[in-house]
Amino acid sequence: MGTDQKKMAGRADYAPPPVDGDFYRIAAVLSDSERALLKRVREFTEGVVAPVIEDYWNRDAFPFEIIPKIAEVGIGGVGYQGYGAAGGSWLLNGLVAMELARVDSSVATFWGVHTGLSAGSIYLCGDERQKQRWLPPMMRFEKIGSFGLTEPLVGSATSGGMTTSCRRDGDSWILNGQKKWIGNSTFADINVIWAREEGSNQVKGFVVGKDNPGFSVEKIKTKMAFRVVQNGLITLNGCRVPEADRLQNANSFKDTAKVLRMTRTGVAWFAVGCQMGAYEHALRYATQRVQFGKPIGGFQLVQDLLVRMLGNVTSTQAMMLRLAQLQDEGVMRDEHASLAKAFCTVKCRETVGYARELLGGNGILLENHIGRFVADAEAIYSYEGTREMNTLIVGKAITGLSAFV
Length: 405
Fold this sequence. Notes:
Residues 146-237 form the Acyl-CoA oxidase/dehydrogenase middle domain. By secondary structure, the protein is of the alpha+beta class.
């Protein structure tokens, strides 16, 4: 046994380096005030979320007590301007998403659905009166939002196959249909619902309150991933919505797509954060787990897994850094967001698998965290556009040929 190995053999003689998944210091490009916000996010996730999340994940429940605390962090509407939003850059928005997902992807998704998809629909598609009415309380997390697009029989084909209908009736609209997998919908105050108008066949957006008599929601149970996210099956049965609650600038699916383009980058950031958290847990475990007389982090095959994971984390962070810069410059296109979502989620799946492998049998125990990351990576991989659909978007852009059927 060499001198270095002899030192490693006694745990009292071994002081591991700090665990840090930001190997290339991506966050260093932020301003001082932005880094201060990111620090508050980390204090929130590690001090408030981390101590309770395993229990809530195991019980398929949501920790409602964290909502006032996440409001105090000040991350409502990062990247938006005005209406009580936090403001800042899209890079800051992405790094907030990464930090949240680094500890728990479900809490990140709650935030993303609320301030991204739901509030984002109003921000992009509402008129000034609607923005003033709904956005400030949403930015303060006093009113929680959901986003109803996917349907029981229509997922990837929603743009052309949406079955939820709407028709004008005097000063109101009548909505009929169902929406499935809708995060936050079991308790949301503001539900953005997308429906196809009878006659014109154009997609329109509506804000539906949870107390509307034509609106009902059933919680989806027995999920293997995102167990903290409260996904619902929404039923709209003769749901009457006033014209004042129709998003005035949502007149076709092209407007819906604007929201999806903006938020698809957020899901890619979730994928980065999810693998970042798995890597950090695995690295910490490798420096503490002793086998054959020394921490397993001192073995070549374990170091190989760790470096593979770190390479995935760092490459996706760098990719997302550039994507956020394009978004801040206003030149990001659909294919840019789609490539990031497809690539980062594939790498996320790979990274959490390496983490599971490193922990051996202990990797399936919830108390060791990795199992939650492995399961949640499956949801990140599929939602907000599957890998296949995003691949076809990119494929069309680079070849000039559509492979959609």
